[in-house]
């Protein structure tokens, strides 16, 4: 019955354990004075310690510590809180796990001092059980860290999607769609939708799709561009694809992509000049200072 | 599906393509390999575009693929193997032809990819999968 031993140590030696947990963390270089004040760091380990001790106390009648048991519910909540706080300030996933694991050594030392059975079976069993518990706690920390990071990635992805498909009005009846980055199927669909609705909203006759910022034009991107241009034409407007760099032009020719009747221009500037000509718009640039 | 001997050069990266974002990630890795050899922009673009076609085929037709990138610094080549365990290609000659597609694409991918690179080989066994090996000179 090793659980009572662990319980007794956690219960009676709280202050010295907390102190040593913190100093083990310090030895491992985990005390981030740049990120947390000493008081904050102390509060964090206390937040974890108390529900841990409570869980062990509740398991004292059990033969072993079951990490899946409901008695760890409070510990899980505390872990989620501390992990979120620490990762938000920039603590790495690995450091977060080591932060928890650092409790092992002070506790093991105390177990060795207090469990004095002759052949060491009880001590071994106690260490094995506590290791299993703390390892699963550290693993849980890692899972929280990853889940938090996934959330951030998803949020950034969503934000980028919105950012990535702006339609700008360049002039009366002329809109531009500057594309940047990669054009996957989902984004291509958004580009198509925002372009077509801009034709209606801005009463556009010419849509310039600028691909200067698109690094790779493969057949899928080409197909999306061709489709968008075709849809623009169906709405009675005309599409000009601009920003075709020499390297993209060469690659597209070798790929065998046929842009057909779609007008293409090397730069946005040329496309705009073209649009002005077509709409019979004269843009006169007067020198303000005059010569 | 593993018919080819290991590609020349030293390992650079291994990636798994399971979703569309992996296609971008993997072709960026190929771009980095070309950068490592100090490739000119046009050569880098050609290889990256070619592998983009092949990786997407691996995803769309092969149901996912495994990518191995190696660097042959002496020869200034980047080698890319893309292996899938899809249904395989029944008629390779037809598949390589421009304008032929069993899907919804433009039907330019395989032939186009071949024209963009220095080295291109494709092996396919029905019911087992397809392996494509490409290489571009930096």
How would you sum up this structure, described in words?
- The complex is a heterodimer of chains A (291) and B (138).
- Chain A has two domains: 3-160, Globin-like, CATH 1.10.490; 168-278, Transcription Regulator spoIIAA (2-Layer Sandwich), CATH 3.30.750.24.
- Chain A has a five-stranded mixed beta sheet with strand order 1-2-3-4-5, with helices on both faces.
- Chain A is built from eleven helices and five strands, in the order H-H-H-H-H-H-H-E-E-H-E-H-E-H-E-H.
- The model of chain A has no long low-confidence stretch (mean pLDDT 86).
- With 291 residues, chain A is of the alpha/beta class.
- Chain A has helices at residues 3-12, 14-27, 38-58, 73-88, 93-101, 104-114, 121-164, 185-201, 219-234, 246-255, 268-278; strands at residues 168-171, 174-180, 206-213, 238-242, 263-265.
- Chain B is an alpha+beta fold and 138 residues long.
- Chain B is 36% helix and 29% strand.
- Chain B has four helices and five strands, in the order E-H-H-E-E-H-H-E-E.
- Chain B has a five-stranded antiparallel beta sheet, covered by helices on one side.
- In chain B, strand 2 (65-72) and strand 3 (77-84) form a beta hairpin.
- Chain B is globular.
- Chains A and B meet through helix 9 and helix 10 of A and helix 1, helix 2 and helix 4 of B.
Q: How is this fold's topology laid out?
A:
The complex is a heterodimer of chains A (291) and B (138).
Chain A: H1 3-12, H2 14-27, H3 38-58, H4 73-88, H5 93-101, H6 104-114, H7 121-164, E1 168-171, E2 174-180, H8 185-201, E3 206-213, H9 219-234, E4 238-242, H10 246-255, E5 263-265, H11 268-278
Parallel strand pairs in A: 2-3, 3-4, 4-5
Antiparallel strand pairs in A: 1-2
Helix pairs in contact in A: 1-6, 2-3, 2-6, 3-4, 4-7, 5-7, 6-7, 8-9
Chain B: E1 10-17, H1 20-36, H2 41-60, E2 65-72, E3 77-84, H3 92-96, H4 109-116, E4 119-125, E5 129-137
Antiparallel strand pairs in B: 1-2, 2-3, 3-5, 4-5
Helix pairs in contact in B: 1-2, 2-4
């Amino acid at each position: 019955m090793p659980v009572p031993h662990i319980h007794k140590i956690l219960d009676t030696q709280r202050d010295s354990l907390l102190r040593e947990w913190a100093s083990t963390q310090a030895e491992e270089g985990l005390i981030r004075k740049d990120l947390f004040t000493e008081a904050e760091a102390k509060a964090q380990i206390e937040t974890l310690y108390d529900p841990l001790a409570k869980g062990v106390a509740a398991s004292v009648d059990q033969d072993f510590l079951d990490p899946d048991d409901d008695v760890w519910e409070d510990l899980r909540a505390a872990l989620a809180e501390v992990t979120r706080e620490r990762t938000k300030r920039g603590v790495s996933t690995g450091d977060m796990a080591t932060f928890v694991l650092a409790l092992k050594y002070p506790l093991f030392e105390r177990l060795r001092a207090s469990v004095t059975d002759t052949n060491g079976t009880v001590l071994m069993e106690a260490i094995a059980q506590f290791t299993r518990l703390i390892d699963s706690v550290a693993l849980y920390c890692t899972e929280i860290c990853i889940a938090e990071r996934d959330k951030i990635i998803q949020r950034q992805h969503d934000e980028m999607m919105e950012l990535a498909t702006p339609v700008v009005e360049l002039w009366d009846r002329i809109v531009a769609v500057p594309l940047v980055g990669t054009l996957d199927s989902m984004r291509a669909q958004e580009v198509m939708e925002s372009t077509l609705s801009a034709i209606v909203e801005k009463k556009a006759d010419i849509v310039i799709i600028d691909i200067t910022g698109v690094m790779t034009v493969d057949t899928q991107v080409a197909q999306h561009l061709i489709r968008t241009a075709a849809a623009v034409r169906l709405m009675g407007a005309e599409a000009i694809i601009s920003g075709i760099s020499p390297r993209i032009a060469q690659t597209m020719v070798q790929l065998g992509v046929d842009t057909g009747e779609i007008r293409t221009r090397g730069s946005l500037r040329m496309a705009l000049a073209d649009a002005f000509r077509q709409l019979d718009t004269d843009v006169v640039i007067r020198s303000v200072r005059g010569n | 599906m593993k018919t080819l001997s290991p590609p020349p050069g030293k390992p650079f990266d291994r990636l798994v393509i399971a979703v569309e974002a992996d296609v971008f990630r993997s072709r960026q890795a190929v771009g980095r390999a070309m950068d490592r050899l100090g490739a000119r922009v046009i050569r880098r673009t050609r290889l990256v575009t070619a592998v983009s076609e092949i990786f997407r085929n691996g995803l769309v037709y092969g149901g996912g693929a495994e990518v191995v990138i190696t660097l042959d610094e002496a020869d200034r080549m980047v080698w890319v193997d893309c292996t899938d365990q899809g249904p395989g290609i029944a008629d390779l000659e037809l598949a390589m032809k421009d304008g032929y597609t069993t899907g919804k694409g433009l039907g330019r991918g395989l032939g186009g990819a071949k024209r963009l690179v220095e080295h291109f080989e494709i092996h396919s066994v029905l019911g087992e999968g397809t392996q494509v090996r490409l290489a571009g000179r930096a």
